[in-house]
Amino acid sequence: MSRLLVVVDVQMAMVTGEYAVPNAENFLAKWGARIEEAREEGTPVMFVQNDGEEPWDDAPGHPGWELFFSPRGEERTVRKTTFNVFESNPQLAAELKAQGVDELEMIGLQSELCVFESGKGALAEGFKVVLPVGMHATTDADYGKAPNISAHIQTELEALGATTN
Predict the structure, then answer these.
(1) Which is catalytic among the residues 21, 104, 114, 149?
(2) Is a pLDDT exceeding 90 seen at residue 8?
(3) What is the C-alpha to C-alpha distance for residues 132 and 152, in angstroms, rounded to an integer?
(4) So where are the chain's domains?
């Protein structure tokens, strides 16, 4: 089994400034540590970068669009225009499978949007999905506080077949 660490939408607009997710510094420390750990253990890392629409801060070319963590060497960045990275990149699943990847560990942003939809997309493509508890985040919303939303999404993806390790 070959695992790929997928870092979803950890972009400047969502982790710095007035629109940063709650406890952004804590999440950045955890994500950074996991990325380094993956690199040290030889687990490949792929970064997903959302191409938001104008005038949003995550639109290409805006400072908020930039990834917070920089890919190294052979690490791939995949851009997307939908919540589900596989919908935006129809060839991605086949490419990953051709490389021997059958398990995706997903961390990043936002729990109820891109993490959830890309997780569902990965499951539909036949990948094992690992969603470590406390490794995805979101913002507060009209329908709940960020930690509650993330916990709900964790439960939802686990019900669909994702695991926590």
Answers:
(1) 114
(2) yes
(3) 14
(4) 2-160
